[in-house]
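anyone seen this seq b4? input:
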Amino acid sequence: MGSQSLPTRIVTSTQAGSASTFGIMKNHFFAVALFSVTAPPVIAQPELERSHLERSHIEANVPQAEEFQRLLQRDLLAFFNKMPGSAVSAVEAAPLRNEPTQTGLSYSKLYFWVTVMAGSSVRHVGAVRVAAIQRVRFEVTDFLPVASIQARPREVDDVFPAALVPAIQERAAGK
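predicted toks r here
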């Protein structure tokens, strides 16, 4: 995006009525033209504010480190125990990204590769997206089991950030 220039009116000596008025307008036009060429873009400041906004949303929603694992386990267990035929005893969650993702004003999102256990048997394996909510809970927004990822690989693109798609598809392929 280029810099904006102020509107100008070019006044000729016959329109101005005197040579001194023309001189003032000529200097004004020169200053505006110089400003248009040398003014830095105004894009940088909103980017700084956006980063601050992102950080504030993440800080307001992602639990503190000492509570993070306990809350994540509690809420993943609750989600998978609601699935039909599940008596889930444990959930192993490996992060797919080291930091939360913040988009606009939504809750911060985190991404994990999960292995869901019922006793000593594996019930579910796949990718999960969770929203961190007010530092007190996580809500599973999407779960894609390995079978779904293998059958419909494009579905991963619809749910997860593009940077995570190759890693998710590799894990689903058993690589």
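The longest strand covers residues 121-133. Residues 19-38 form the longest helix (20 residues). kinda curious what u guys think
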